[in-house]
Design brief:
Number of domains: 2
Cofactor: Zn(2+)
Pfam family, one: ADH_N
Helix content: 25-40%
Organism: Pyxidicoccus parkwayensis
Keywords: Metal-binding, Oxidoreductase, Zinc
Protein name: Glucose 1-dehydrogenase
Distance between the termini: 13 Å
Largest sheet: 7 strands, mixed
CATH topology of the largest domain: Quinone Oxidoreductase, Chain A, domain 1
Structural class: alpha/beta
CATH superfamily of the largest domain: Medium-chain alcohol dehydrogenases, catalytic domain
């Protein structure tokens, strides 16, 4: 079968003819890949800063944002049948009995670091014509979401983050729900975060680098979130215009932008980090002032990565809600679709011409 392969030792990326996977257990499902979204993690892998092939393999098949179609089910599989659209989860639990997170079905909180991640760490991903997965890690996608269900995995970032924020804010029983939010960055994770926040009732503003007009600003404002450029509006001016945010949702991967936003955060507020800064970013901090602010304002800084079973289910549910509330809003986030042969050029920005979300299609 056709597959994109990353060879870390050779520092090479190419489309190969890989062995077609077959069912190995009665609880497995064979899936034909329909679409794979690309993101910053894929860029890190293609720049050989990250990504580990499965044991015994010289290459890694990337791709962790996936929509597929069931073509075969094992004898013990219930609830799935040929033709169903499915979205697979990314992370698999570590094998250690001493890891309570993994043993309780939350490998996204793994304590040992010995988890595997499809398309990222020690397991092939989904950027191939087909893959096999245990039914426990698959979620059925409604057929009416066929054109946008590839956005499920990046939306789970917001679903998990907001689930954690809700727990944190329970420390403030008098606080009216939900409050003000600022989203840093207007890429796919940021845009989906905007929709998730608006759906929950947050008064939400997008704060991103590029001045208007641009497609990202247009996408945010189309769903009702004002867009401000950090090149034109300082954090202090942001507060004057939008009010001090109770929640800052970082979706840039820029350490400087993230910590600069702390100047705007309201007392008792929460800053959520979702981005992973690229290598070589330099950051100068006034540590004493930041510590003083966090303490005196009772602020919380939260890091979040990956997502659980419940977050994937919530994301699929929210995609349906978003589509009903903002017709065309999700479709606007998908800038273009490309064949597998263009994977490297799309991820590295040589094809596609910017935009928001680029997708690899397998038919």
């Amino acid at each position: 079968m056709k597959a994109v392969a990353v060879f870390p030792k050779q520092r090479e990326v190419r489309v190969i003819d890989a062995p077609e996977p077959r069912l190995q257990s009665p609880t497995q499902v064979k899936v034909r890949t329909r679409e794979v979204g690309v993101c910053g993690t894929d860029k890190d892998i293609l720049e050989f800063a990250y990504g580990t092939p499965p044991p015994g393999s010289e290459y890694l098949i990337p791709g962790h944002e996936c929509l597929g179609e069931v073509v075969e089910v094992g004898s013990a599989v219930r609830g799935f049948q040929k033709g169903d659209l499915v979205v697979p989860r990314v992370r698999r639990p570590c094998p250690h009995a001493t890891c309570p997170a993994c043993r309780h079905g939350h490998p996204d909180f793994c304590l040992t670091g010995d988890y595997t991640e499809r398309g990222i760490k020690d397991a092939h991903g989904f950027c191939a014509e087909s893959f096999v997965e245990d039914v426990a890690y698959l979620h059925r996608a409604p057929v009416e979401l066929r054109d946008v269900a590839v956005l499920t995995e990046p939306l789970t970032i917001a679903e998990k983050a907001l689930r954690q924020v809700k727990h944190i804010q329970e420390r403030l029983p008098w606080r009216p729900e939900p409050g003000r939010a600022v989203v840093l960055g207007a890429g796919p994770v940021g845009q989906l975060g905007v929709m998730a926040l608006l759906r929950r009732g947050y008064v939400t503003t997008v704060y991103s680098r590029s001045p208007k007009p641009n497609v990202k600003a247009a996408a945010a404002e189309a769903v009702g979130a004002p867009y401000l450029s950090s090149k034109e509006v300082s954090p202090e001016e942001l507060v004057r215009r939008a009010g001090a945010p109770d929640l800052v949702y970082e979706a840039t991967g820029s350490a400087t932008a993230a910590f600069e936003s702390l100047k705007a955060l309201a007392p008792n507020g929460v800053l959520v980090f979702t981005g992973v800064p690229s290598h070589g970013q330099e950051l100068s901090l006034e540590g004493a002032e930041l510590m003083k602010q966090w303490v005196l304002r009772n602020q919380v800084v939260l890091g979040t990565v990956n997502a659980s079973d419940s977050d994937f289910a919530a994301a699929l549910d929210d995609l349906g809600r978003f589509r009903a509330r903002w017709p065309g809003g999700l479709e606007r986030l998908i800038t273009s679709r490309h064949p597998p042969e263009d994977f490297a050029d799309v991820v590295l920005g040589k094809k596609g011409g910017g935009g928001i979300k680029h997708v690899i299609t397998f038919g």
